[in-house]
Write a structure and sequence with these properties.
The protein has 94 residues and is mainly beta. The chain has strands spanning 3-6, 9-13, 19-24, 39-42, 51-58, 63-68, 76-80, 84-86. The strands form two sheets. Strands 7-6-5-4-8 form a five-stranded antiparallel beta sheet, with no helix packed on it. A three-stranded antiparallel beta sheet has the order 1-2-3, with no helix packed on it. Pfam families: GPKOW_C (PF25088).
């Protein structure tokens, strides 16, 4: 997801680099990274827009334990897979 145009539509970039506009949430599928300590973005709920790292997966419950970045307390939250997605953007320190 490159940009949220409205609360219900977005612009996405394909793996080939093409921009696709006017996509609705129902057209998208959440991608959960497979590697250890992979970065994710929270896309739903009170922490929406925050970045974090997956500490643990609970595939049988479709949720993950995520440590939020830039949180002074190092907060760890358990989130449904639908509330997070693989983050491939730049690092917050970039």
């Amino acid at each position: 997801v490159e940009d949220m145009v409205t609360p219900s539509t977005c612009v996405c970039r394909t793996d080939e680099g093409t921009l696709v506009e006017g996509l609705k949430e129902a057209m998208l599928e959440t991608v959960i990274p497979r590697g250890e300590a992979e970065r994710v973005m929270v896309v739903l709920g009170e922490h929406a827009g925050r970045l974090g790292r997956i500490l643990e997966r609970e595939p049988e419950r479709s949720r993950a334990v995520v440590q939020l970045q830039r949180d002074e307390a190092g907060r760890v939250v358990t989130l449904d897979y639908d509330a997070i997605c693989h983050y491939v953007g730049g690092h917050e320190d970039d």
